[in-house]
Structures are given as C-alpha cells and as structure tokens.
Amino acid sequence: MPRLSPDARHTVRVTVNGRALEGEAEPRMLLTDFLRHKLGLTGTHVGCEHGVCGACTIQIDGAPARACLTLAVQADGADIRTVEGLAPEPGRLSILQEAFRRHHALQCGFCTAGILMSLNWYLARTPDPSEVELREFLSGHICRCTGYVPIVAAALDAAQRLRETGEQR
Amino acid sequence: MKPAPFDYVRAESLAEAHDVLAAEGGDAAVIAGGQSLVPLLSMRMARPKVLIDIMHIAELDGIAMDNNTIRVSARVRQAELLAWPDLAVRQPLLAQAMPWIGHWQTRSRGTVCGSIALADPSAELPLCLLALGGEVTLSSKQGRRSVEAGDFFTGLMSTARRDDELIEQVSFPCRRPGEGFAFREFARRHGDFAIVACAAVATEKSVQLAVSGVADRPVVRDFDDASDAALAAFASELDTRDDLHATAEYRRMLVRELGRQTIEEARRCRA
C-alpha cells in the first residue's frame, strides 16, 4: 500500500492529450497546479478553486471534471485531456473553437477553456441538443462577460457543423 | 487556496484501509471522488493528517441488486449510477433526483457513498436515502454493521459513522408495486445547493414526504392526510433559520408549496 509523506514530492504519471508525461507533486497539490506549474500546460485556468466556477474543467478518463477538485496524486495513471489538445493541428482551430470565435462567445477568455472542454465532451454524446438542454448543461460554468447568449449560439452552431461534417473534434 | 499538508495513503484492500483508520482514527479522512472533501481541504475547513484514497480497492466496486434492494458500493460514482440502465425502472426517485446533484462535471467524479458520508443538509442523496428508508453499511477492523438512514444522519454534516469506520455501501429499496415517487428542488441556479428539496413516496394508504435544505439534516414525515393544514403544521415544526440565501419563513413556505406539488405528483405517478 503506497503511503506518500506530506513533505516529499512524488512522481505522478499521466497521459495528457495523448502524451505520456510525469511530474513531481506533494500529496496536497491540486491537479490544476500540477498541470500548470509542473507540466507547463497553462491553458487550464484557475478560478474559484472550489468547484463552482468551472474555469478549470478538463476531461479525466473521458469525462468532464474539475481539475481543482482532484489532487494530482489521485490522478496518477489517468488519461487527461486539456484545452491544448482541442486544436487538430497548430494554427487551426477545432470546429467548436472556430464557432466560439465566430460568435464572439468569449471576451476576457478566462472561463473559455473550461467551457470548451465540457462542450467538446457534451456535443460528442449529444449531437443535437436543444437550447434548454445546453443551458442546463452550461450551468456548471460561470462567465461574467458574455451573458451566455453568444456561448449558447456558438454551441448550437458547432453542433450543427459537427453533425454535417461528422467530425469528432 | 492550498490544502494543509497530509499523508496520502492509496489503500489497495479493505483490510488496509481498516488498518489505517484503526491507527489514525479521527486524524484520518477517507477520500473517494473528493468533490466535497477537496474544497474543504483547500479552504482548510478539513485538516486531516492522513488521507485514505479508497478508489483503488477492488472490493468496493459495483452496483448490485438483491432482495429488491440496489446496493451501491463505495467506489461507484454518481454518473455511473445515473447511467445504470435499470435505474429508472428499479428506483424512479433516484433517477429523478440525481440529475440535480451538482453538475455533470462533478457527478463524473463524486461518489454516491461519499455524498451520504458528508451528510450535507441540502444534498439530494441523503434525502433520497431517508425518503426510501435505505441503509448504510459501515465496516471497520471490528466488523461490519448496518445503520438505517433515519439513524445515520445525526446532525449538521454529522453521522453515526465512527472514526474507525468507512462506508462500504449504501442500499436503496427498489420500487414496490403501487408506489409512486416524485422529486422537486428549488435553488438559485441548477446545480447549486438546494434552498429546499422535497422527495415523496406515495403508497395506497399514505405518503412520505422528506425535505432537505431546511433543518440540520433531512427530515421525513409520514402523512395519512396530506392536507394543506397538515403540511403547514409540518413546515412550522421544522427547525430552520434565516441565512444568506433565504429566510426561515421563506423555507417554510417552500416546504408547503413544493411539498404539496411533490406529493400530488407522487400520487399521480402511482396511478
């Protein structure tokens, strides 16, 4: 039974966006800080740090989750996807990201990475959501700039384009 | 916000977890999904010396059915029970109430037993467990015991669990013929803590109404006659107080209104 002492750092191995990565973490380090400070993946943002705002949402083992509500040591061995993994190639945005740009679905952009990671998962399993369903799903995210209207519009537009192209991303 | 330092133990069997709990007692905390415990750690409202991760204990996995009971083991995440294909048939109340727990993004990690263990007075799962008359199976080095929901919740985030025990599973009775169920919740935003939530179980003779978000723990009452006067009397007896989100009077009003709607819906579903 592994017992990790509080003042030492322990190796945490994860797969992030398909790449095997590792870093050192004290048991109390949150996954948000591990991603940002140890792995250099600063696309995942830190907002409220208690699970309410949704800014740090990533995908853990194929489901959307708050990185701030998970310890890095709990995620040892996990398959993680972050916003850095959304674009199909450098310089090209995913269909969802492109829709956000077209609809001005962000202003300051602080909440955007989390919303993208949630919607990326949601639209893959709910290809034709109603606006009501989308709004209920997005209740797990707080945006203080947009008033949500352009976010919902971008999500509906992306859903339609994803259905037309059959693309997963 | 950073948690205070703690030892992290990844238990690989129930016996290992029991050993650590026996040795550390109240200085240890069990972590499963961590969706409530991690923020409590971050805000330093919880400062355990040792954290015992039980999510690698194979014995604690799975949803099982026996004797008309759904047994949910400690590792089962809320999203897993919600996606269980038999849920709406076996226990409609859980199928109705569980989408109200937090958000998709927290149900994917949070466990069913973890929510029972935390015993938040506004949480949906303790409310359902009480309304259905379910039970909690606790175990420690000393052995195993079962506690009925009505005896398990003892106060504000307090339960009958001893410091050396962990929750192995919770059991929800399945729907019996002739029963009807309904759930209603009022919160400022979907996924927020309920200001008031109601669960009703209607049978031929009577109806049980359970409410959460009002007192320091969920409360259940059996009504032969669910008249407005009986509901008003129930609401007035509840030990509630004003807080940031609502006044005591407002909560009592919600118990009367939502309670009546929930009972009516449960009775309709019975038919």
Topology:
The complex is a heterodimer of chains A (169) and B (271).
Chain A: E1 3-4, E2 10-16, E3 19-25, H1 31-38, E4 57-60, E5 63-66, E6 79-81, H2 95-102, H3 112-125, H4 131-137, H5 149-165
Parallel strand pairs in A: 2-6
Antiparallel strand pairs in A: 2-3, 4-5, 4-6
Chain B: E1 7-10, H1 14-24, E2 28-31, H2 37-42, E3 50-53, E4 63-66, E5 69-73, H3 78-82, H4 87-90, H5 92-97, H6 104-107, H7 112-118, H8 124-132, E6 135-140, E7 143-148, H9 149-152, E8 153-155, E9 158-159, E10 166-173, E11 180-186, E12 196-202, E13 207-212, E14 219-223, H10 228-237, H11 248-270
Parallel strand pairs in B: 1-3, 2-3
Antiparallel strand pairs in B: 4-5, 5-10, 6-7, 6-10, 8-9, 11-12, 12-13, 13-14
Helix pairs in contact in B: 10-11
What can be said about this structure in brief?
The complex is a heterodimer of chains A (169) and B (271). Chain A has 169 residues and is α+β, with helices and mostly antiparallel strands.
What does this structure look like?
The complex is a heterodimer of chains A (169) and B (271). Chain A is an alpha+beta fold and 169 residues long. Chain A has helices spanning 31-38, 95-102, 112-125, 131-137, 149-165, and strands at residues 3-4, 10-16, 19-25, 57-60, 63-66, 79-81. Chain A has two domains: 10-85, Roll (Ubiquitin-like (UB roll)), CATH 3.10.20.30; 95-165, DNA polymerase, domain 1 (Orthogonal Bundle). Chain A contains five helices and six strands; from the N terminus they run βββαβββαααα. In chain A, strands 3-2-6-4-5 form a five-stranded mixed sheet, covered by helices on one side. Chain B has helices spanning 14-24, 37-42, 78-82, 87-90, 92-97, 104-107, 112-118, 124-132, 149-152, 228-237, 248-270; strands at residues 7-10, 28-31, 50-53, 63-66, 69-73, 135-140, 143-148, 153-155, 158-159, 166-173, 180-186, 196-202, 207-212, 219-223. In chain B, a hairpin with a 2-residue loop joins strand 4 and strand 5. The model of chain B has no long low-confidence stretch (mean pLDDT 96). Chain B has 271 residues and is an alpha+beta fold. Chain A binds chain B through residues 1-7, 26-28, 30, 49-51, 54, 57, 60, 63-66, 68-71, 73-74, 118, 122, 136-137, 139-140, and chain B through 1-13, 16, 31, 34-35, 38-39, 41-43, 51, 53, 55, 79, 102-106, 108-109, 189-191.
